[in-house]
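Usage

Read records sequentially. Each one opens with the input sequence:
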Amino acid sequence: MSTQINRKNSIAVLNNSIRMGQMNGAFLLREASLLKDALDFFDDNVKEKPTFDTADNPETVAVSLLLQGVQKAQAHGGEKAYSLDDAALLHKIHEFWLKELGSSVNQKERRSAKAAASAARDPASDDDNDEDEVSVNTVSLRSKKGKAKEIGV
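and closes with the structure output:
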């Protein structure tokens, strides 16, 4: 009998997968910082939750960042990429979140997730795309105390 994917267990799997990707060197420092904020959004022990000022739904942004993070970790993992079983589970989690947040995910976030997935599938398709370079947009984060910082995504 298999376990049903839900919000809580899918975030736990994404958390572990992001951390595994970081240990294998998948993320630039800026990306790691942003992914940490996305993980903190779901961490019950973090009192000052990050907010994403440019988004109507911060949960959607946090989930989108985590999904893009696992896509990048898979694409750049080489011999340290996820196992076949882990990758299949991550795909199911990706599909779960697309269904779960479907109506609240705006078109820009969907395009961003699709672009990340496309780049993960075929990073060599764009001749101008250097493996160590990423195109970034800025997201403003604000803690509950009002502290603001801008981070590229």
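Summary fields computed downstream for this record:
- Residues 115-138 have pLDDT under 50 and may be disordered.
- Strands lie at 51-52, 138-142, 148-152.
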